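Note to self: user wants both folds in one dump. Writing first protein now.
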Amino acid sequence: MRALELEEDNPTNDADAAENQKDETDLSKLDMPALLLALCQYVETKLKPANETIRIHLPKEVFGTKDDTWLLGDDILQFASMVEIRSTVIALYMRYLFNYLKMANMMGINFTWCLIIQVVIGC
C-alpha cells in the first residue's frame, strides 16, 4: 500500500509561509469585538512569549475516548483572524456543542441521529 502524497498548487518555502501567516494574524489590521481583541492581546503578551498552551479535557462522551487536547496561542489568533484553522479548534467547537446540547437536555438518541442524518444528507 502506498501513502497518499498531496502537493500544493503554489508551493512556497517555509519563510514565505511564516510571513504570510504573520500578516494574516496581524491584530492591528483586524476589526474585531473588544473581548476577542483582549483575548488575542493576552495570547500575544502572555501565552506566546512563555510558550504556554491551554489544556482542555475532552470527556469520553464527546468522541468515545477520554482525552486531553492542547490549544495553542496560534490557534486562537488564527480563529480570531478568520484564516484557516487546525482540527483542534474544530474538535473544541464540537465539545462546546456537546456541552450546549447536554445543558439543554437534548442528548437523546433520536435527536442525535437526526443531527447525524442532517449532516450526511446536507439539509
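First done. Writing the second protein, which came from a different request thread.
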Amino acid sequence: MRASSSTLVVALTTLLTTLSALSTLVAANHIPFGDASLVARSNAQHSSQLVARDASTLTAAQQGTPLGHEDHSDPVAPSGARLRSLSVGAHSLAAYWTRSPSNTLARQAFIMIHGRNRDGDAYWTTMHDILTSAVSAGYTAADSNAIIVAPEFYSARLNNGQYSSDELAWGDINAWQAGEAAVHPRGATETSFDALDALAEHFSNQTQYPRLEELVFVGHGGGGQLMNRYAIVAKTPSSNLAVRYIAGDPSSSVYFTSDRPTTDRSVATKEDCPLWNTWRYGFDNFTTPLTPRQHFNNVISRDVRYVVGYDDTASSGDQYCMALLQGGVARRDRNLAWWKYINYLARTNEDVRGFPGNLTKEALPDWTGTLRHTMTVIRGATHNADEVFGSSEGRTVLFEKSASDVAVGWRPSGWRKAVATSETTSASAVSATGGAAASGSSSTSTSGAQSVQRNWTALATLLSLATAIAAWI
C-alpha cells in the first residue's frame, strides 16, 4: 500500500538534507586531479576546501614559520626569454618562455620549476646556460633548438603586485609544492598539478611542435618536491612524447606506506608528530579514490630521475618533524633513504647496502614491479641547482633520452651495479655511508582515499534512493 504523500514528503526532505550534508563532506575531502583515465576531474570545489590537505602549509601557519622571500617589483624577463601567460582552466599561469622558440624544429622542451623563492627568471637562466654549455661542448643529446619554460608559482601575499588579475597565485608557505589549489583569483580551483598538466597538453600539439620528441619536467628544491608528487599523479602523457620527471634535492617525498627510515627518537617520533603521514609526506588526507599501492604501481613505470648533491647536508629547508622522520636533518640522507625504500618496495635487485636508515626488504610489503627510476649523486654539489644540473653527471640526467644512459655519479667502494634478470630491476642504484639509523613497521598507510571512496559510494546510494522516492510520490 502506498504511504501518504505527506509522510513521503517528510522522508524525502530528511533524505535530501542528509544527502546535502554528505555532498558537503565529499566536496571537502575530494579534490580530483591526475590521470584523467583514473580520476574524473571537477571544478565544483571552492579553493578554501582545496588548500586544506597539505601538512606543511598547516604546520607553517601553526608554528608561525617565517614566510620567506618577498618581492613586489615588476617582473623582468631574463635575456632570451619573455614573460607570458598560459591558459589553465578558467585562469592563466605566468611563465618565462624562450623568446623566439623554434617550434617547428625543437626536439626537446624543458619545464624548469623554481625553488621556494619563486624565482622563475633565475631558473630559466640556469636551464638556458646549462643547455647552451652542453650544445657548445658538442653534447649530442642536447637539442640546440630546445624550448625552455619556467612557470611562476606566485605567492598571493609575498608577490602581490607581480601577477595580473587573471593569473594564478598560491597560499603560503609555498602550497604549490604539494599540488594545492591557487587562492587567487578568488574562487580559483586550479592546482599546481593542473598547471603542469596544461603545459604537457600544450606541448603535445603535434601541429605546433611537429618534431618534438621529449618533454622534460625539472624541479630543484621546492620544485623538486612538486616534481616528486606530480610524477605520481600526472596525466598519462601523449603517445608522441617521451616524458621524464626530474627531482633535484627535494626536502621530502611522499611515502606510500607507514614505514619511515628514521627511528632515532632524539630526531623525531611519530607520537610527537601527528601529521607525520599526512599529505605531502604520506597519503592521509590525499583526496583521490586510488590507493597508495595503485599510485605506486603507476609511478614506477614512469621515467623519474632523482639527483642529489652529495654535500647537500646542511640543516636547512624543511625541518618539520614530518620531514625529519624521512631520514634526519640532511636532504641528501632523506633522498638516499627514499631510494632504498622504493627499491625495497618494488623488490628490485639493486645494491642499496649502506644506505641511510635500516628499513629492510623483509619488513616492507611486497609490491613487486619494474622500477624505471634512477638516482644520481653529484660529488661536491651542495643545495645548488647550477652545481647539480651543471655537472657532467647532471647533464646526463637532463638530456639523455634513455634512462640506461644516465650517470649514477658517486658510489662507495664495493658498490655493485645491478644486473638485469627475468625479475624486477631498477635503472640504477646508490649507496651511502652515514645518515640516521632507522627501521619501520610493515603496515601500509591508512589512506584518506579509502574514506573518500566510502563517501562517494554512500552518496551514489542516496542519490538512487532519492530518485526512487521522488518517482514513487
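Dump finished. Worth passing along: Confidence is low (pLDDT under 50) at residues 1-51, 421-425, 427-473.
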